[in-house]
Amino acid sequence: MRIAIVGGGISGLAAAFELEKARRDGTQVEYALYEARNRLGGSLASEIVNGAVLECGPDSFLTEKPAAAELCRELGLGGDLLPSNDAARKTYVVLRDRLVALPDGLMFLVPTKLLPTALSPLFSFSAKMRMALELLHPPSRNGLYDESVAALVKRHYGAEIVDRLADPLLSGIYGGEAAQLSAQTVLPRLVQMESQYGSLTRGMLAAHRQMRARSESSAPGNGQTQAAPRALFTALRGGMQQLVDALAEYLDRTAVHLAAPISSIERDADGWRLESEGFVGIYDALIMALPAWATSVLLNSVDETLAEELAAIPYSSSITVNLVYDETRLPRLPEGFGFLVPPSEGRAMLACTFVHRKFLGRTPPGKAVFRAFLGGMKNEALLAESNAALIALVRRELREILGERTFGHADEPEHVQVSRWRRAMAQYTVGHKERMGRIAARVQALPGLRLAGNAYDGIGVPDCIRLGRQAARELLTLGVKAPSAVALESLRR
């Protein structure tokens, strides 16, 4: 079997890893990976400056999703997995230019501890009363249809919680807006809790009790101490580039084609016909690991309806600005990992991470690294700004939020790094689940085609790895049947 992979980001690399692994185990498979740029990894890219690891894109992955850590271990990187410094984990929200800590016991958007929430200056008295009364919320059948995250949260906790929690949290993860994102897709657990318990707070408390009971029942006996809880995030000691480099080293180098954009894709009785700068390749199967909008362009000649569905998935852009400082010249910073900025604050920054606090050992002693995020659905115009303008903007907002003494005009950063990611973050808007069903039906009618990437079933690094490997496994397991002429003609209609 000959399989082509289009796209050399983490999804395409994960698919290629699975095929190379099968080839080494004796499976009769050939593969070719095509990447338009002259480097692999997509948004996974790291730079090490004077011992400080600076991430251009994602800096880590969720520990609870195992696909990324499993792949790292298979590649021999297990010893370089670095847990987040959760002992110092504390996140703030900017409220009228002040940093206000998220209250203890807040599980994503749901308060589970009464006293910290009641005492928090983040919420008004009326919002706190609304949170208390939410415990009486009756079970609902709203989960039968999709709605926005904002609608779900507002119904339970009010508009203030949307503004001060839902919007900043989701803009930091998706670069999107709570009023647009799908509750069914983005927060399926909360939708299920509403249906079962009515109150999201009661549902989250019940889930917490069940988790604690499972933990206690699985605790080792004979006086042994229970294992410490896993860290929320996991990174690689040398940066996410380590994963990209290890994958590139593992793959058959003759199968990887850089600076090789695919110009057209056709499907006929012989299989998948790919053309790249005059070169034509025929393959039995195809894994499209590009953003959905780019996949749409290439598959339009194969299935116009599928292409239209893919093109309808919205994307936002993002900008990452890293600033390295001499920590000894900065006054004491607030404790914690960093802060989130609600859109209502009218700032360019969506969030800022104190990198030297989040992952210990990736920043030299005496250095501080600040990682600012800009962009999102409402700030696409920022992509046109110069690096100098973006750096000045970030420094000004840091001064206004953290204080003039911390980021005064006299203290220039030792190093700055700006990374732009155009149309990189898929938006799971209302109706996404139904759209995925329609896309799956069209793909099913095209033997040998699989889609992988952050547009479909999870935006994080583990999700992309899972989908890439799954696509490769399915093709290896199921094999490929040639479509009939009738089937090909029906797809073009």
Describe this structure in words.
- This protein has helices at 10-24, 67-74, 114-119, 125-133, 149-157, 159-174, 183-186, 188-197, 200-217, 241-250, 292-299, 304-311, 355-358, 387-402, 432-444, 461-478, 485-492; strands at 2-6, 30-34, 46-49, 52-55, 61-62, 81-83, 91-95, 98-101, 106-107, 110-111, 233-236, 256-257, 264-268, 271-276, 279-283, 285-288, 315-326, 338-340, 349-354, 367-375, 415-426, 449-451.
- It is α+β, with helices and mostly antiparallel strands and 493 residues long.
- Among the domains are: 2-42 and 240-313 and 429-492, FAD/NAD(P)-binding domain; 46-87 and 315-426, Polyamine Oxidase, Chain A, domain 2 (Alpha-Beta Complex), CATH 3.90.660.20.
- Helix 1 (10-24) runs parallel beside helix 10, helix 5 (149-157) runs antiparallel to helix 6 and helix 8 (188-197) crosses helix 9.
- Mean pLDDT is 90; it is low at 481-493.
Q: What tags apply to this protein structure?
A:
493 residues; FAD/NAD(P)-binding domain; Polyamine Oxidase, Chain A, domain 2; single chain; alpha+beta; seven-stranded mixed sheet
Supply the CATH superfamily name of the domain at 2-42 and 240-313 and 429-492: FAD/NAD(P)-binding domain
Which parts are unreliable, with pLDDT below 50 for 5 consecutive residues or more? 481-493
Structural class, by secondary structure, is alpha+beta
Overall residue-averaged pLDDT value = 90
Beta content comes to 15-25%
Give the overall shape.
globular
The radius of gyration computed from the alpha-carbon positions, rounded to a whole number of angstroms, is 24 Å
Sheet with most strands: strand arrangement: 8-7-18-19-20-17-21
Q: Which fold name corresponds to the CATH topology of the domain at 2-42 and 240-313 and 429-492?
A: FAD/NAD(P)-binding domain
